[in-house]
Give the backbone structure.
Amino acid sequence: MNGHAPAACGQRERDLAAQPQRGAGDENNRGGRHRGHGEVGGSAIADNPGVTPPTLTTPPSLTSALAGHIREAIAAAGGWISFDRFMALALYTPGLGYYAHDSRKFGLMPGSGSDFVTAPELSPRFGQALARQVAQALEATATHEVWEFGAGSGALAGQLLDALGPQIQRYTIVDLSGSLQARQRERLAAWGDKVHWVSELPAQMQGVVVGNEVLDAMPVQLLARIDGAWFERGVALQDGSFVHADQPTALRPPLEVAGNHDYLTEIHPQAEAFVATLADRLQAGAVLLIDYGFPEHEYYHPQRSMGTLMCHRGHLVDADALQDVGDKDITAHVNFSGIALAGQDAGLQVLGYTSQARFLLNCGVLEGTEDAPLAERVMLQKLVNEHEMGELFKVIAFVVDAPERPWGGWQALGFAVGDRTHTL
Ligand SMILES: C[S@@+](CC[C@H](N)C(=O)[O-])C[C@H]1O[C@@H](n2cnc3c(N)ncnc32)[C@H](O)[C@@H]1O
């Protein structure tokens, strides 16, 4: 095991790695979850004395109980756990993890006590545009149900239910977070029995599956190349604090990373297994996943030497997942080539892949907005502007293509212009 500096030095470790040139390595410095003026690496805080670092918004009793729980898990595992295990515990430990407790999470401004904003929270026109693609997919696959994974506050569900009316016979939500499920039940009460929640997938399902920013919330493993050798970066304890610690590994990024410089990155076995499970269970229908990320040649670009792991709190971003566990979200960008391959290998057909901007424009997001109030148009612009969510966020869609349910080659509305499947 190769011990590393304590959590507070996570940034220093990254600073020691080869500095990325401007170019491919920059994209993740702009985007991810839309978050005002935050920047990666806590630099919005560290370099700007005018910005006050966020204080804990979660009761200290919860964060210390969570830290205690993770310490016990590390001790029980012999002193080291993989990063995906740490991330799962930090985000989803029942009652204690970031997504398991009651903090606000989603909102436009930090003043509301929120940490970040997502597309359906920014503008209902996101869900209205997506609804056009969902409507086409329901019709083309002769299905009548929508399945949403990771429904957050329930905003997108409300938008889709409103827009699609009787075309949806049943709307099923799968969310790991009990506290968010409670929020969704309250928000979606008006739809009565049409909306259901399940904690396990049935052996067979039909319909259109949607997931906005759910893949980025799935735990990732960290791989570090140091002096030319690859290690899996996990978490250990030093004087009771969480520290990164590396173990030799046979794991490798899916693409060879040119050069010999030190390099930190992520792999996504859980997100890929999730897509494979969907493929296995879905008998008829389509899948639409929206998230921030890139194809693998961009993801594993030699210049992206610090990976994409980011934490979100109070609309600021930092790269130190080991500090203040449970009080901030931890995410990584999505390798869309890996997602596409996982779906294809499990029998799905890729229906399209493109930027969020192109997808929403293809779905008519701007139609009828000429006379909309300025505030509404500003939010809409955030969804499609290249420097906001328009380019970093992507949409990938799959369709079931089985002998008994041949896809038939229908052209999906959202990818009619500017499909980038060939770049995956
Ligand atoms: C960043 S939030 C996005 C929420 C919402 N989709 C939105 O756009 O506002 C991630 C959501 O995914 C959920 N989640 C994470 N992993 C999941 C999984 N494997 N299955 C279902 N939900 C999951 C979290 O509980 C949370 O609701």
About this structure: The chain has two domains: 2-111+227-264+302-328, 119-217+270-299+333-417. DSSP finds 15 helices and 19 strands in the chain.
